[in-house]
């Protein structure tokens, strides 16, 4: 059985898009290092106001990881949306994928009925996972196009 936890939190890091991307890179690199050690996979959706993250793995490891993350001063008021056992991992190949909301990915948000600011308190965890899967697919398609062009 895989345990899956979805939470959101307020992004309290100040700065422009560039500062946010640097921040995201730091978070994702620490996440990839720790999560590969701990058998955690997942995805991080991110804009100027919110983080929404999906964590999956063994229950004890998911809890320990979430407890560590929730103490991180780069965000505040982490709130669990959903925590449950699931049959399989939604992001089996990602120790932690990340997607910042940029104009480029706006079409993916629109496909999910999110035209303006994201409002995590109104989202269901299943919706978050589908959005994250489509953001991941968008990124994979972009990378493939770049590979073909080079
Ligand atoms: C929004 C957010 C998501 C994070 N996600 C993870 C994660 O999935 N795994 C992880 O180990 N650390 C994550 N972190 C970083 C942790 O809070 C913490 O800085 C890190 O685990 C410390 O790792 P270290 O002791 O190896 O430096 C996240 C931080 C933030 C702000």
**Count of discrete alpha- or pi-helical segments spanning 4 or more residues:** 4
The CATH architecture: 2-Layer Sandwich
Order of helices and strands: EHEEHEEHH
Range of strand content: 25-35%
In total, the number of domains comes to 1
How many strands, what sense, and barrel or not for the largest sheet?
Answer: 5 strands, mixed
Strand order of the largest sheet: 4-1-3-2-5
Structural class computed from helices and strand pairing = alpha+beta
CATH topology: Alpha-Beta Plaits
According to DSSP, the number of beta strands is 5
Mean pLDDT, all residues: 93
Query: Given the C-alpha coordinates, what overall shape results?
Result: globular
The CATH class turns out to be Alpha Beta
N-to-C terminal Cα separation, in Å?
A: 42 Å
List the quaternary state of the chains: single chain
Domain BLUF: 2-97
InterPro entries: Acylphosphatase-like_dom_sf, BLUF_domain
Protein name: BLUF domain-containing protein
GO molecular function, one term: blue light photoreceptor activity
Layout of helices and strands, plus pairs?
Elements (H helix, E strand, L loop, with lengths): L1 E10 L5 H22 L2 E6 L3 E8 L1 H12 L4 E12 L10 E4 L5 H6 L13 H25 L1
Parallel strand pairs: 2-5
Antiparallel strand pairs: 1-3, 1-4, 2-3
Flavin mononucleotide binds next to helix 1, strand 3 and helix 2.
């Amino acid at each position: 059985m895989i345990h899956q936890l979805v939470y959101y939190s307020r992004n309290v890091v100040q700065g422009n898009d560039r500062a946010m991307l640097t921040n995201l890179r730091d978070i994702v690199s620490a996440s990839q290092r720790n999560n590969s050690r701990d058998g955690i996979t997942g995805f991080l959706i991110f804009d100027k106001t919110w983080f929404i993250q999906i964590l999956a793995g063994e229950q004890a490891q998911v809890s320990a990881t979430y407890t560590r993350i929730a103490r991180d001063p780069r965000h505040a008021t982490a709130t669990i949306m959903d925590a449950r056992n699931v049959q399989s991992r939604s992001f089996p190949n990602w120790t932690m994928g990340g997607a910042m909301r940029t104009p480029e990915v706006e079409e993916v948000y629109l496909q999910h009925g999110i035209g303006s600011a994201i409002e995590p308190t109104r989202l269901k965890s299943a919706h978050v996972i589908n959005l994250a899967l489509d953001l991941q697919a968008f990124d994979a398609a972009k990378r493939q196009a770049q590979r073909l062009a080079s």
